[in-house]
Write a structure and sequence with these properties.
heterodimer, A: 117 residues, mainly beta, six-stranded mixed β-sheet, four-stranded antiparallel β-sheet, globular, B: 116 residues, 11 strands
Chain lengths: 117, 116
């Protein structure tokens, strides 16, 4: 079974609008971390935001926020005030803190976001 | 402020050739990982290391070997390259196991490998 599911292969948003990228996860580990990475066309992986399973509040980093719904096992990324430079592939990833593979990340298949003017 | 450096950035091989990808990190991280990225598949773990002299298999280890002789370096080897190993390879490192840690994995810029 997929540990991380990103159901949106592609998303389009107009500049200055907000967009939500969906991510659901599957784990029986009570302690885990959720990460979002951005991969622009140049190929590098850029860390955006982190949410711990025990965190009481949703994580925020500038224009990025994470809508964490633990009971639903979802960790959606919200990008506010989209910019043309936000066009990229976005990956959701999970680390299981008690898993046997120390610190490894499970990645979803990604969502290609296109921001249009 | 190099972070994680991968060499080479691009390589074309013929089927059956061998090569080694080098990953070097200057952040004194204990844990290092090799992933491959294929279209529509996200990143999949090949091998990883939790410290100097240790390595372990990940999700897709077949056809690859690794070594971690020095803490800062993690080598990925292809003994006999196959077209199915055409991919983008990413190395990553992290400072600890991450129990409730917010430390992300730091990635190199990737190596594009084509096997003809």
């Amino acid at each position: 079974a997929q540990k991380i599911t990103q159901t949106q292969p592609g998303m389009f948003v107009q500049e200055k609008e907000a967009v939500t990228l969906d991510c659901t996860y599957d784990t029986s580990d009570p302690s885990y971390g959720l990460f979002w990475y951005k991969q622009p066309s140049s190929g590098e992986m850029i860390f955006l935001i982190y949410q711990g399973s025990y965190d009481q509040q949703n994580a925020t980093e500038g224009r990025y926020s994470l809508n964490f719904q633990k009971a639903r096992k979802s960790a959606n990324l919200v990008i506010s005030a989209s910019q043309l430079g936000d066009s990229a592939m976005y990956f959701c990833a999970m680390r299981e803190d008690r898993g046997s593979t120390l610190g490894r990340l499970y990645f979803g298949r990604g969502t290609q976001l296109t921001v249009w003017p | 402020n190099a972070g994680v450096t991968q060499t080479p950035k691009f390589r074309v091989l013929k089927t059956g050739q061998s090569m080694t990808l080098l990953c070097a990190q200057d952040m004194n991280h204990e844990y290092m990982y090799w992933y491959r990225q294929d279209p529509g598949m996200g990143l999949r773990l090949i091998h990883y290391s939790v410290g100097e002299g240790t390595t372990a298999k990940g999700e897709v280890p077949d056809g690859y070997n690794v070594s971690r002789l020095k803490k800062q370096n993690f080598l990925l080897g292809l003994e006999s390259a196959a077209p199915s190993q055409t991919s983008v390879y990413f190395c990553a490192s992290s400072p600890d196991r991450g129990s409730r840690s917010n430390q992300p994995q730091h990635f190199g810029d990737g190596t594009r490998l084509s096997i003809l």
